[in-house]
Amino acid sequence: MNAIVHAILSGAQKVLGDGFLGMYLYGSLASGDFDPQNSDIDFVVVTVTELSTETISALTAMHARIAAGRSKWATEIEGSYIPQHALRRYDPAHAQHPHIYRGTGEGESRLIVMQHDSDWVVQRHILREHGVVVVGPDPRTLIDPIHPDDLRRAGLTFARQWCTPILRDPDLLRHDGYHAYIVVTLCRILYTLEHAAIVSKPVAARWAQRAHAGRWTALIERALAWDMHWDNVDETLDFMRYTLEHSHHWELPGDEI
């Protein structure tokens, strides 16, 4: 894993030159729920300015070389290249940045410019408060403090954006790993709505088992064990509906991010 992080770092520094500002690890590596069997390497490279088309092409080629390697972690990476002015606070009108998805399927393990959704309010919070500095200044100097209500708004928006298409097309849950990820992430959304804070997915899952009358104990337990199957889909869809219904208790002025 360290070798892959070093490969990304050295490759990004070589391509970006003076345009490189820093590299950080976020996600499960920073929030305390990293699982070597199921987690990936989440990273952010902060750039001085927006990247040109030519620079993005050079970074794409660099990532293709990494993905072609033999390491288990060569395709288990997910990250973004964000200019420092855009990193400071989430603005959906200026949230299109180069991003790479984990995996080896079509559209994965390659850099694409894409819209970053409202969950990046949460990712910024994790990066600011718990981010692992690979190289660069303290992330607290790069990201403004995030208000608790903004965390709740992000949770509300993300739950709606995420659950609605899956409820329309449950076949999106055919991937067992994604299925488990959804359940534990919904637990974290519920925790954030209740407490206006971010904890690791396992901590949020254990809290949800206790706090919601034990209704979802078995489902959450299977998700924590990454033992989700298509047979569980109806219960998962019910949990998604429950999350959406529960979120109505936390309506906030200007809750769309």
Helix-strand layout with pairing:
Blueprint: H1 2-16, E1 20-25, H2 28-31, E2 41-47, H3 53-67, E3 77-83, H4 84-87, E4 96-100, E5 111-115, H5 119-130, E6 132-135, H6 148-168, H7 176-195, H8 201-211, H9 217-224, H10 233-247
Parallel strand pairs: 2-3
Antiparallel strand pairs: 1-2, 1-6, 3-4, 4-5
Helix pairs in contact: 1-3, 5-6, 6-7, 6-10, 7-8, 7-9, 7-10, 8-9
Descriptive overview:
This protein folds into 2 domains: 2-141, Beta Polymerase, domain 2; 148-250, no CATH class. It is built from 10 helices and 6 strands; from the N terminus they run H-E-H-E-H-E-H-E-E-H-E-H-H-H-H-H. Helix 1 packs antiparallel against helix 3 (53-67). The protein is globular, with a radius of gyration of 18 Å. With 257 residues, the protein is of the alpha+beta class.
The structural domain count equals: 2
State the low-pLDDT regions, or none: none
Task: Tell me what the CATH architecture of the largest domain is.
Answer: 2-Layer Sandwich
| H and E order | HEHEHEHEEHEHHHHH
CATH-assigned fold name of the largest domain: Beta Polymerase, domain 2
| Major sheet attributes | 6 strands, mixed
The number of helical elements comes to 10
Mean pLDDT: 89
How many β-strands, per DSSP? 6
Highest-level CATH class of the largest domain = Alpha Beta
Any idea what the CATH superfamily of the largest domain is called? Beta Polymerase, domain 2
C-alpha-based Rg, rounded: 18 Å
